[in-house]
Amino acid sequence: MATKGVWQLKQVTIRYCQHSGSSRYVRQLLGDHRFLKFVEENPQVHFETELKGARHPILIGDYVKNERKVSDIKNQDIAFIMKQLTRLRDSSGRKMTHIKKPVYSKRLTIQGIWQPDLDFPEFKISDRT
Fold it and tell me: What is the reported pLDDT for 127?
């Protein structure tokens, strides 16, 4: 995602094992045309691969503001991995925050809840001076 014209994702590291069965789709991904097209379409992102023996595959996204997001891609197919790459590219890198209501009250409005059966006095035009 671009903030003020600056892409937030600066590097993606694909960490996988050469022999593990859980890294099977990651090894296929590296030669897949969809991944190569994704790399060409995103020149602002630096892609690198790491071989780690006896480990499950993960995607690591490093952002401009020194934030890091890690995505587990163990036993996931190529379409899921591409969705995760797109999610890393499109996110800002900031942590998710829970948005709460700023004011807690029993009544939802300042005026109170409207009730149509209230008895209002009737004003006659002759009463006005």
Answer: 57
CATH 3.40.30.10 assigned to domain 8-90? The reply is yes
CA atoms within 13 A on the CB side of 91: 21
Long-range interactions of 64-70: CB distance < 8 A, separation 24+: 64/6, 64/7, 64/8, 64/9, 64/10, 64/93, 65/8, 65/93, 65/94, 67/93, 67/94, 67/95, 69/93
Pairwise CA distance, residues 91 & 114, whole Å = 43
* Dihedral sign for Cα atoms in the order 57, 18, 63, 6: negative
Residue 51: what residue type?
L
Average per-residue pLDDT for the chain: 88
Q: Is the pLDDT of residue 50 over 70?
A: yes
pLDDT tens digits along 84-109 = 999 999 998 888 888 877 766 676 66
Note the pLDDT tens digit of each residue in 3-21.
Answer: 888 999 999 999 999 999 9
